[in-house]
Amino acid sequence: MVEVLFPMMTGDPQDQGVLTLWLVPDGDAVRPYQVLAEVTIDKFDAEINAPAAGVLTWHVQEGDEVAQGAVIATIA
Length: 76
What we know:
four-stranded antiparallel beta sheet; 0% helix; Lipoyl-binding domain-containing protein; Single_hybrid_motif; Biotin_lipoyl
C-alpha cells in the first residue's frame, strides 16, 4: 500500500491546506503520475500525482482542511 500525502507547500508545517477537487473517483484504478487531486494553501494551487499504480482509496473529502504532509489517500 502506498500513501498519497498532502504536499508541503509553505515554510510552516502547521499551515492547513484544502483538498479542492478529486479528479479520480474513490475506488478507481490509477496509473503512476496520473493527476489525482487539486489542493490549495495560502493562494497556492497544486496538483497531486499518483506515486504508483493501483486502486485509489480516499481518506479525505473535497473541501476538507488538511495538514501539510498528512495522508489524503492510499493506493493498493
